[in-house]
Write a structure and sequence with these properties.
Elements: H1 4-16, H2 21-32, H3 37-46, H4 53-60, H5 64-78
Helix pairs in contact: 1-2, 3-4, 3-5
Length: about 80
């Protein structure tokens, strides 16, 4: 898909506003397509109110060990 890297953030933002189970599944799939682990953490933070399971997805992906130093940065920038 041309310009997929431009499409994905908009798609995630749209899905992040919805809370039904179908959307949650699509959002989890979209999250798995994010190549930048730090960006995935930011997306999880931005949508934590409606989709706290995104943090769980990051932990289960096995990438969380590389993100431990970043978690404080993301938390501090959101407060």
């Amino acid at each position: 898909m041309p310009d997929f890297d431009l499409f994905l953030p908009d798609w995630i933002a749209l899905l992040g506003k919805c809370t039904d189970w179908r959307t949650k599944r699509l959002l989890e799939e979209a999250m798995s397509m994010i190549q930048d682990d730090f960006q995935a953490l930011i997306v999880a933070r931005d949508h934590a109110e409606n989709h706290p399971e995104l943090y769980k997805q990051i932990l289960e992906s096995g990438k969380s060990h590389t993100l431990v130093p970043c978690i404080n940065v993301v938390y501090l920038t959101s407060t």
